[in-house]
From TrEMBL, chain A:
Record-annotated membrane-spanning stretches: 715-738, 765-786, 792-811, 823-842, 887-905
Protein topology in the membrane: Multi-pass membrane protein
Domain ABC transmembrane type-2 residue range list: 678-908
Any one GO molecular function term: ATP hydrolysis activity
Domain of life the protein comes from: Bacteria
DNA repair found in the keyword field: no
Protein name, UniProt field: ABC-type multidrug transport system, permease component
Species assigned in the record: Marinobacter nitratireducens
From TrEMBL, chain B:
Annotated ranges, domain ABC-2 type transporter transmembrane: 25-363
Predominant localisation class: membrane
Gene Ontology terms: cellular component: plasma membrane
Short name of one Pfam family: ABC2_membrane_3
UniProt superkingdom: Bacteria
Gene3D superfamilies on file: abc type-2 transporter like domain
Ranges that cross the membrane: 23-40, 182-200, 220-244, 256-281, 287-306, 348-366
Lineage: Bacteria, Pseudomonadati, Pseudomonadota, Gammaproteobacteria, Pseudomonadales
Signal peptide range in chain numbering: none
InterPro entries found in the cross-reference section: ABC-2_transporter_component, ABC2_TM
Molecular functions (GO terms): ABC-type transporter activity
Cell compartment(s), UniProt: Cell membrane
Membrane topology label: Multi-pass membrane protein
Protein name according to UniProt: ABC-type multidrug transport system, permease component
Length: 910, 372
């Protein structure tokens, strides 16, 4: 067992219906460099994630360092011995944080302290040459430096097993070489350390001790690179891999260069170039993505752009397609200046963007069909063209599958088919082959060459594979926004000391290189063993997450401004807008009497502040009509002979029609009408007999408490504060966690010793603090702008607010636990919180008056209780002891919500 | 013609995409069924189950009758308390009203002496406070009159007031809450769906893909508007017929078809707002904040929660630019008052005009956004 660091037995893994690993049994030897080779989507990443503990084991058994990884307790204990660097440039890093802050974060998570911590950080920064960049945000580092920083963070705790998932994909050759040199150095100093690496570059795999070739979720072969080559009888690993593929794979085809007629450079040099770029420059703010790039591509040529990720390839291509307007410089397509609005030019160009620009939720047929229609192929041609493409690109078997479910190689063939559906004269392809296995890449190039040579299509392609560059007619070497060299591959190779494009590129880069060399004495890691890490609740880890989140929040000024100004603005709008005073109601009179007496009666209404008189009603039909249109909410009908009857003391009758469409308003109007009617009668008696009659035997003395003037603001403003303190904190919190899921940094929760509780509380703290600042601004607004008197104590209110925003951010956490995309989290928060808060929390009517589910929801909604307290403090001047029940209820939400989040949040990916 | 074809084809694609996002669809379904039903069955702002406490220092037949008259559905069964408990009850907020019937109340009434009762009201409960006080006053007056001379409570005043309530004779809140919630959901869901569709497209990089095809921004946007509009339309139709008419049994007076036509015009502007927000917001958190910023005023100030007439003139004027204002007044007119096209055409016109403005603005921004 000693020589095996990890052993898999019958391990299978699937995502939904897609199988990632199929019954894999494998032992990874300890103390050496193990390489996983194979194209994207064959299960390499899944395997590494399982070994690191980032993903939950579904089937089979997995033993790492002699213990069962399916047991959470063991996994917790062993996780500090493992370091995992996920796929993607800086996948475990936080891009707005600086180099120092990133490293500090990881050091905190692993509980490093004192001089050993400082020493460790110092040595790592020295070895990677990042010392000079300590204050630079991770997002602004070059790809190679990001990967080195990722490595620093992974190595901070002296792991015994280092797992690297495609650490050099998309990094330029020079940085790649330095990265591997660094790993060699570390391994030489730490001979006991095991390293497991996945890679897509076969040249790199040559350096590894032991290889696992994978395809379709299965292990094809294992052994040293030499063993694999000799077993297959091939000269290169690329070919060895292809030979290892099962017989029935259709792309089993050797890379032997298909003989292709060279491009005749001289023949039509007079002709108009397909693309002509002059001095293209693109700036984003103070960052120059592309600087002074010029080139000219002749018709029918295959022109390659070689460079690392982030060197400006994509930006340049976007300028050529009109997606970006160059800051400086000109582009001419087919001899005419590029006009982004010109639809005719667009139909001569095919573009395949870096992210496979297909609709994954449509089938292959639907995708082809949609694009054929959007390019306006004649209806009768569509079917024939699709058949042609299916033939050419070999898609017949997958016609009715969803594009998103296809293997990468097939998806990329489909992308190309889609890009040429309208037979364009110019094809612009942005890294079409990244992540595709060597066989499929080879087929792809054969297709490109056929398009270029047979159909005369001009092809402009970008790639970071050097061996693809060799198949272009001409290439540009690009680095940091600038073209370093531009010539035929042969010419470039002749100029350099080696015999490959890789060497040529590396030498060109070295000439302009600004990437730092390592400094310091060379010892990277102390030879100490990693220390055991406490699994008990650690305030330090909680604080590490809290501080990190706060920094991120503070560096997003737009989000901050939105949240602060937004809540202040909403407070103003809602505070003034929502009013329970029912006033200025439109009414009209159908006066069939037309005497001074009838007009006198109407004055009682038109003179009050509740009603505004509209033009009189002409007839009963008109009354119906005007009520229906909502033109008036009250109609008064004065019968003929009203004045006469009144004078003679005969009983008479006034009819009123009240609009009941809005029940609350209807009730209020009824109340007003009755009041005005009685006061009219009183006045009438007073004038007629000189005394006021007692119409009622009982005098009901109304004492309106807390808000004597019935000022709507005083009642509404304290209610608006809870509303605003629920939506914004809940949404920000929910997105805060889901974002980590989408960006991949959630992996740090999976593979570091941080517990779920520390993670949740740590992330919650900054949002609570943030919401409390928002609370202060709302209270200031309420007191100063709305002049709502604060009768009770501010500390009482503040304590309640603290409990409340903790509960609302907790609510956001619960939502984020089950939502996996930001859109779903947003929709869920909006749909689930707005209705209960606005309607069931007692803002307009007390919870006790609600029925059914609403009453239940109201009781179990934090806003209900904070609203109670807010009104209590503002308008009633209540103290903590008067409302201890509300406080207790509000406080009871906190453990429940946190417990729910902890239960719902997973400590491992699926 | 070509343009129409593009809009149609892109819209179909939009529908396929939405169909695959099952989580979102579930939320849409919940919003249009459960949420509408809960809001409808919640009872509403009219006097309903108002909590009242009574201090009966008289303990006589008359005081008993008065207490009995305060009953469901207007009041919860009155709770008998001691005088010194009143402050505490009102402070706690457990009761909105506290009525004090003094000792010797019945005796004084019999002797024709002027009597008075004290009614304490929590005025922060603005909706209940005013309406409830009126009810209590009327109940007490008629109980006392009936007590003195049975049958006299209907005695005629010199000028009798005959009140009729149009459209909703019992002032039943169920009729109101459900429909208003439906309007909120139509507005909110259409904005979320359209905005999310745009952001999803941006995340997947397919917006760029569309922009290099011979398509105009107008076509891309129009496709989003019609496709997402139609989904909300479908959900709204279901909600009106099934939830509102069947489950909540709200008698709809006007034509449902006319209401849906109005909803369609309304959707034109809300989906445009969705595109607008989706264009302005760069990230999802920004979209979320903008959404809240938009949706709350649209919902709370439309006239669907509190009467429009009572808002400050400035707010009323500003809210004229909001589609919900017109949609709410149109929906009330059609569904409750049975108004026809002859009555609601101005609102429809306003909705269409607002929609056109929002659509135009969104298109302009969308174009500029894509050009960057």
């Amino acid at each position: 067992m000693d020589d095996v660091v990890a052993r898999l037995d019958g391990v299978s893994h699937h995502y939904g219906s897609r199988i990632a690993l199929k019954d894999v049994s494998l032992g990874l030897p300890a103390g050496c460099m193990v390489g996983l080779i194979g194209p994207d989507g064959v299960g390499k990443s899944t395997l590494l994630a399982l070994v690191s503990g980032a993903r939950e084991l579904q089937q089979g058994s997995l033993v790492v360092f002699g213990g069962d990884m399916a047991r959470p307790r063991y996994r917790d204990r062993v996780s500090p011995r493992i370091a995992y660097m996920p796929q993607g440039l800086g996948g475990n890093l936080y891009h707005t944080l600086t180099v120092d802050e990133n490293i500090d974060f990881f050091a905190d998570l692993f509980g490093l302290t004192g001089p050993s911590r400082a020493g460790q950080i110092q040595r790592l920064l020295d070895a990677t040459g990042l010392m000079a960049f300590r204050d630079r945000p991770a997002g602004k580092l070059s790809g190679g430096m990001k990967q080195k920083l990722g490595l620093c963070c992974a190595l901070i705790h002296n792991p015994d097993l280092l797992i690297l998932d495609e650490p050099t994909t998309g990094v330029d050759p020079l940085s790649r070489k330095r990265f591997w040199d660094l790993i060699e150095t570390i391994r030489a100093q730490q001979p006991g350390m095991s390293v497991v690496v996945a890679t897509a570059y076969m040249e790199e795999a040559e350096r590894f001790d032991w290889l696992v070739a994978m395809d379709g979720g299965e292990v094809l072969a294992t052994g040293s690179p030499g063993a694999l080559r000799s077993r297959t009888g091939t000269a290169t690993l690329d070919d060895a891999f292809i030979a290892l593929l099962p017989e029935n794979r259709d792309d089993r085809e050797l890379t032997g260069e298909a003989s292709v007629a060279g491009f005749d450079v001289g023949s039509d040099s007079q002709a108009v170039p397909a693309i002509e770029a002059k001095n293209l420059t693109q700036r984003f703010g103070d960052f120059t993505a592309v600087r002074d790039v010029s080139f000219s591509i002749r018709k029918g040529e295959i022109f390659g752009f070689l460079g690392s990720n982030g060197c400006g390839k994509t930006t340049t291509m976007k300028m050529l397609t009109g997606l970006l307007t160059p800051t400086e410089g000109d582009v001419a397509l087919f001899g005419a200046p590029l006009n982004a609005r010109d639809l005719a030019t667009r139909s001569r160009v095919g573009y395949m963007s870096q992210s496979f620009s297909l609709y994954g939720e449509l089938t292959v047929r639907q995708n082809l069909n949609l694009h054929a229609r959007l390019f306006h192929l004649p209806k009768q041609r569509i079917e024939a063209r699709i058949q042609e493409l299916v033939q050419d690109f070999d898609l017949a078997d997958v016609m009715d599958q969803l594009a998103g479910a296809l293997p990468l190689g097939v998806r990329q063939r489909l992308s190309l088919a889609v890009a040429v559906v309208h037979s364009p004269e110019l094809l612009i392809l942005d890294e079409p082959t990244s992540g595709v296995d060597p066989g499929a890449r080879n087929r792809f190039w054969t297709m490109l060459q056929r398009l270029s040579r047979q159909d005369g299509v001009t092809i402009f392609i970008s790639t970071h594979f050097m061996n693809e560059g060799e198949r272009c007619d001409r290439i540009s070497l690009m680095h940091a926004g600038e073209v370093l060299a531009c010539d035929t591959p042969q010419a470039l190779i002749e100029h350099c000391s080696g015999d490959s494009l890789e060497v040529a590129f590396m030498e060109t880069l070295e000439a302009v290189n600004q990437e730092p060399e390592k400094t310091g004495d060379g010892v990277v890691l102390e030879a100490t063993r990693s220390q055991p890490v406490s699994r008990r609740f650690s305030p330090r880890r909680l604080w590490a997450y809290g501080r990190r989140e706060a920094r991120e929040l503070l560096r997003d000024p737009i989000r901050m401004a939105f949240a602060f100004l937004g809540s202040a603005l909403l407070m103003l709008i809602l505070g003034y807008g929502i009013t329970m005073d029912v006033e200025d109601l439109p009414f009209a009179v159908l006066d069939q009497d037309q005497t001074p007496q009838s007009r006198d009666y109407v004055t009682a209404f038109s003179g009050s502040r509740y009603f505004v008189e509209q033009t009189p009603i002409a007839s009963m039909e008109a009354l119906d009509e005007r009520m229906r249109s909502g033109d008036i909410s009250l109609a008064i009908i004065i019968p003929p002979g009203f004045g006469k009857d009144l004078k003679r003391g005969r009983d008479t009758e006034i009819g009123v029609w009240v609009d009941g469409a809005m029940p609350f308003r209807g009730e209020t109007i009824q109340g007003y009408v009755q009041g005005l009617h009685y006061s009219y009668l009183m006045e009438l008696f007073q004038r007629t007999y000189g005394v006021a009659p007692s119409l009622s035997l009982v005098d009901v003395q109304d004492r309106y408490r807390y808000n004597q003037d019935f000022r709507s603001l005083d009642a509404m403003v304290p209610a608006v504060i809870p509303i605003l303190l629920i939506f914004i904190p809940a949404i920000l919190m929910a997105l805060g966690i889901v974002r980590e899921k989408e960006l991949g940094s959630i992996t740090n929760l999976y593979v570091t010793p941080v517990t779920r509780l520390e993670f949740l509380l740590g992330k919650q703290l900054p949002y609570i603090a943030f919401s409390m600042v928002s609370y202060v601004s709302l209270v200031v607004l309420a007191i100063l702008v709305f002049e709502v008197p604060l009768k009770g104590g501010l500390p009482t209110l503040t304590l309640a607010a603290l409990l409340f925003v903790t509960a609302t951010t907790g609510l956001g956490q619960v939502i984020s636990a089950f939502a996996s995309t930001q859109i779903a989290a947003l929709a869920a928060t909006a749909i689930l919180t707005i209705l209960p808060t606005v309607q069931f929390s007692g803002m307009t009517e007390p919870v006790s008056s609600l029925d059914g589910a609403a009453a239940l929801i109201g009781q179990f909604w934090p806003a209900t209780w904070f609203l109670q307290i807010s009104r209590g403090v503002f308008t009633k001047g209540l103290s903590f002891s008067d409302m201890h029940r509300d406080f207790l209820t509000l406080a009871a939400f906190l453990p429940v919500l946190t417990l729910l989040s902890v239960t719902l949040l997973r400590k491992q990916g699926r | 013609m070509e343009s129409l074809g593009n809009i149609w084809n892109l819209g179909l694609k939009e529908l396929f995409s939405l169909w695959r996002d099952k989580v979102l669809l579930v939320f849409v379904l919940v919003a249009f069924t459960f949420m509408v039903y809960t809001a409808g069955s919640a009872g509403s702002m009219e006097l309903h189950n108002a909590p009242i406490a009574v201090v009966d220092e008289d303990q006589t037949v008359l005081s008993g009758r008065i207490i009995n008259s305060l009953q469901q559905p207007w009041f919860m069964a009155p709770e008998l308390v001691r005088f010194d408990q009143i402050d505490q009850l009102l402070d706690k907020g457990s009761h909105t009203f506290a009525l004090v019937i003094p000792a010797d109340f019945e005796r004084d009434v019999r002797q024709g002496k002027p009597v008075s009762v004290q009614l304490d009201i929590d005025a922060t409960r603005m909706t209940q406070a005013f309406i409830g006080a009126g009810y209590i006053e009327r109940f007490i007056t008629s109980e006392v009159a009936e007590f003195l001379a049975p049958g006299s409570s209907t005695a005629e005043l010199p000028v009798n007031l005959v009140s009729h309530i149009s459209f909703n004779p019992n002032l039943n809140g169920t009729w109101f809450g459900g429909v208003m919630e439906l309007i909120t959901q139509i507005t909110m869901i259409s904005i979320i769906l359209t905005g999310a569709a745009l952001i999803r497209e941006r995340e997947h990089g397919t917006v760029e893909h569309l922009m290099v095809m011979p398509l105009r921004p107008f076509e891309i946007m129009a496709a989003k508007v019609w496709a997402n509009g139609i989904v909300v339309m479908l959900a709204a139709t279901l909600s009106v017929t099934l939830v509102i008419q069947e489950w909540l049994a709200v008698p709809v007076r006007g034509s449902v078809a006319l209401f849906l036509l109005g909803a369609l015009i309304h959707l034109f502007s809300t989906t445009a707002i969705g595109v607008l927000i989706g264009t302005v917001a760069r990230t999802m958190p920004q979209f979320g904040l903008l959404l809240i910023l938009t949706i709350l005023p649209l919902q709370l100030l439309s006239g669907g929660i509190t009467p429009r007439e009572s808002m400050p003139q400035l707010v009323q004027d500003i809210m004229l630019a909001a589609p919900t204002t017109h949609f709410v007044s149109m929906a009330q007119a059609i569904l409750y008052r049975g108004a026809g096209l002859d009555v609601v055409w101005p609102q429809m016109l306003a909705l269409a005009a607002i929609g056109a403005v929002f659509f135009g603005t969104a298109l302009m921004l969308f174009r500029r956004h894509l050009a960057i």
